[in-house]
Structure formats: structure tokens, C-alpha cells
Design a protein that fits this description.
This protein is 27% helix and 26% strand. By secondary structure, the protein is α+β, with helices and mostly antiparallel strands. It folds into three domains: 178 residues, Alpha-Beta Plaits; 87 residues, no CATH class; 58 residues, no CATH class. The strands form four sheets. The protein has a six-stranded mixed sheet with strand order 1-4-3-6-7-2. Strands 8-9-10-11-5-12 form a six-stranded antiparallel sheet, sandwiched between helices. It contains eleven helices and 19 strands.
Length: 433
């Protein structure tokens, strides 16, 4: 796919035609990737109208910064803006995503057994598929209009999937699943389309979008990576393990993984904690020792709604706390209480939210711990549950909470999942009135 001459806007001082010199891909580099993978071919706008009965899908550039203040990593990605789904079923628009506990289960599995045996040690590998959508054939007929072709009678007809198109995620999932089953000889899980295992070598794997995580012996991981690399462009981000040459720290879905001698730590992104405290204006404030407070019925009845200008700020801060709570089990219940007030937040809800912020000032980092699990002949899962019977003073609803442990009775601190859930109101039966 050749390209016509055009002038690209500059981003953050980069020269036209490349990256920013400190890691990243500019707009010209992004278009070069489209040409390299033969994502589209030239077509006329008239042919687009004849084939689809509509004009080409508009495109725009999205500037993404994946770095930090020390290491800049600025990328430019061309996105289609396909919105209409009248002729497309919902089942083809969305792709499956695994539950977060699937990756925690892999963290627990990698710490099972002896640290070293005849084949070495189990390791956890994180693989990133570069330009994931460019490796899957687009299943529909879509024409797009990139910015540099506006004002001409030309457009692109997609051959491969493109970011921003409705079918891209589903097409990529089908391509990846076919590779995992036919090339890598893995068996799919029953609970999620994103988890797989190899019964012959005991390899366990899960993927989320273009991130693939696998646990196995080193030689089996190398074979798996080699087979996957025949179909996709891969980057091995980290291989966590006990040996000297293995990585000891890694990032997975913006979570931090730390390998220590006798355990593996999982914690949320510390940057989210700093942002939450800053959004609430609590930097340097006095910390609290508990994550939540008990609100009485009288306080709820006297609550005053927040002014309109404060509602947006409350919703943003509460949503961030809710995101953090997925990896901070100590915040699950108080975060749930704050999220209940998202529609019409009050001063009481804000007081609860700021209490969580002050708690984070004193306890900014809390990790889930996966310790070594030796001599396991029959691994199993233990589920603990409890409820605060009619605990809500307003609705008299209960909140059920559960936590899943992997091999609890064998002294494992590997918490896989926890979820609070509100139940229906408790009402007396007609015979008890």
C-alpha cells in the first residue's frame, strides 16, 4: 500500500516522519505499520458508496503517552470512528475478557511445588502482541477515510482489522483462539474463552486483549512463545522466576508484580493512589486508621446534595477509588458505599470518600501475597462468605461478601477474588407479622 505525499502535524517537538527520539512512534511511523502489515488497499469513494451505501468511516489520530517523567514513550495511533451497528449483532462486536482472578490464579500456580526440580522452576511470562489487530483478517466490508486523504476521491478498504472498527476485537479474538488451539495445541477453559491450558506439559495461560500470560517450565514457555511468534509480532515484557537471570519486577494490566525469594506480590498501580489523594485535596493530610465509617439513618436523612460543580469531581474520584478497590480488598466495602451515591451524591457521601482518601494517605501500598506452596498433591479452592444482615440503615438490604483462597489450609495467602454484593431487602413473612 503506497502512500501519497502529505504533511504530518508534529507532536511534542518530534520531527515529521518518525518517533520522538526517546521511544515511541510518530504519525508517519504509524502509517508505515499500516503499509507493512497491508492493513488496507486503495479504493475510490464512489466504490465505497456502491459497496456499503454509505460514506467512508472517518478516522483521527490519537496521541498516547505510555511513559513517565523519566522515560518518554509517545505513540500516535490512527483510529477509525465506526459507530453504527444496525446490521451487526452484539455477539460480533464484543470480545471476551477474563476475570481478574484468572491472572491471580496464575500467580498462585507459579508458586506451587518445589522452587526447583529436575526440569528447573516454574516461571511466569508476560507477552505483548504488537499491533494485535493488524494480524487478523477483517470479516466485514469497511471503507475508512484517513486524515491525509480528506479532500481527495480516495479512501481505504480494509483487508485487516483496524483500531476503532466494530468487528476488530472479535476478529482478533477468533484469530488468537485459532492459533492457541491449532498451533499451540492448548485446550480452552469452560468458564471463560480467554483461559487455556496444555494438559501434556501443564502450561496454563490467559489473555486480556493483546496481553498473554503463561505459567510453565522455562523450556515449555520458550516453545509456546516460538509457536505464538509464527503468527504474531511479539514482545516478551518479563519472565518472572527464581533464577538469577529472571525478572523480579513486572507490570501486568497496570498492576505491579514483584518476585521475592519465598513469595510473589501483587499490588495496584501506586500512581492511582497518588492521583486519588490529589483529586480529593488530601495531600499531606492526617491519615486515618480505618478505610470506612458507619453512617446512621439520621445522617442519611439530613444529607445535603452536592452542588452541580462538585458532582462531576465526586464521580471521578469515586470511580477511581472503585478501580483501586479491585486490588485493595480493604477498600471494597467502603468503595461500594461511595459508588452508591454516584447518581445524586451528598455531603455524607463526600465525607465517606474523603475518609477513604485519608486512609490511603496512611496506607498507600497494600499487596496481595502468594507464598510458596510445597507438597501439593491435590490443589483445591476454598471460598469464605459472610453478610451484614440488613446492614443498610436506609434500604435494610444486606451486603454479601466472599473471598476465594487457593489452598487455604496449606497456609497459602493467595487471595484470588473478593466481591461485595448487595442483596434484596429482608421482609418478614405474612405468618410472622
Amino acid at each position: 500500500m503506497a502512500d501519497t505525499a502529505f504533511e504530518l502535524p508534529r507532536i511534542d517537538g518530534e520531527s515529521n516522519g518518525g518517533g520522538d527520539g526517546e521511544g515511541g512512534t510518530g504519525m508517519a511511523g504509524g502509517l508505515a505499520e499500516y503499509a507493512k502489515h497491508e492493513v488496507a488497499e486503495w479504493d475510490s469513494i464512489e466504490a465505497c458508496w456502491e459497496a456499503t451505501g454509505a460514506r467512508p468511516v472517518d478516522c483521527r489520530w490519537k496521541i498516547i503517552s505510555n511513559g513517565d517523567a523519566v522515560r518518554r514513550d509517545i505513540r500516535a495511533r490512527l483510529l477509525a470512528r465506526e459507530m453504527k451497528k444496525d446490521k451487526i449483532g452484539w455477539e460480533t462486536v464484543f470480545a471476551g475478557t477474563p476475570p481478574l482472578w484468572a491472572f491471580r490464579a496464575l500467580c498462585s500456580i507459579v508458586r506451587r511445588g518445589e522452587p526447583h526440580d529436575q526440569r528447573g522452576a516454574h516461571k511466569l511470562r508476560i507477552i505483548d502482541i504488537k499491533r494485535a489487530f493488524f494480524h487478523s483478517v477483517h470479516s466485514g466490508t469497511v471503507h475508512v477515510l484517513p486524515p491525509h486523504l480528506k479532500g481527495t476521491d480516495l479512501c481505504w478498504r480494509l483487508k485487516m482489522s483496524m483500531y476503532g472498527t466494530l468487528l476488530a476485537a472479535g476478529d482478533f479474538q477468533d484469530t488468537l483462539a485459532k492459533c492457541l488451539v491449532e498451533e499451540c495445541k492448548l485446550v480452552g477453559g469452560e468458564s471463560s474463552p480467554c483461559i487455556y491450558h496444555d494438559p501434556k506439559c501443564d502450561l496454563q495461560a490467559a489473555y486480556h486483549g493483546d496481553d498473554v500470560v503463561a505459567v510453565a517450565y522455562a523450556d515449555d514457555l520458550d516453545k509456546f512463545t516460538e509457536k505464538l511468534g509464527k503468527h504474531f509480532e511479539l514482545v516478551v515484557k518479563a519472565t518472572l522466576g527464581p533464577e538469577v537471570g529472571d525478572d523480579k519486577k513486572a507490570s501486568l494490566l497496570n498492576r505491579l508484580l514483584t518476585w521475592e525469594d519465598s513469595r510473589l506480590l501483587w499490588e495496584c498501580d501506586p500512581r492511582q493512589i497518588d492521583l486519588a489523594v490529589a483529586e480529593l485535596g488530601l495531600v499531606g493530610s492526617k491519615p486515618r486508621s480505618t478505610p470506612g465509617i458507619k453512617v446512621s439513618l439520621e445522617e442519611r436523612e439530613k444529607a445535603v446534595p452536592l452542588p452541580p460543580e462538585a458532582v462531576r469531581a465526586y464521580r471521578g474520584a469515586a470511580a477511581r477509588i472503585g478501580y483501586i478497590a479491585h486490588d485493595r480488598f480493604d477498600l471494597l466495602y467502603p468503595a461500594k458505599e461511595c459508588l452508591r451515591g454516584m447518581q445524586n451524591p451528598t455531603d455524607v457521601d463526600l465525607r465517606q470518600l474523603k475518609h477513604i482518601g485519608r486512609y490511603l494517605v496512611g496506607k498507600p501500598r497494600v499487596a496481595l501475597v502468594f507464598v510458596e506452596q510445597k507438597n501439593l498433591k491435590d490443589p483445591y479452592v476454598t471460598v469464605l462468605a459472610d453478610t451484614d444482615y440488613a446492614g443498610c440503615p436506609v434500604t435494610r438490604r444486606s451486603t454479601n461478601g466472599g473471598i476465594v483462597f487457593d489452598n487455604l489450609k496449606r497456609c497459602t495467602l493467595g487471595r484470588l477474588h473478593r466481591r461485595p454484593r448487595r442483596c434484596r431487602a429482608v421482609r418478614p413473612s405474612s405468618t410472622a407479622v
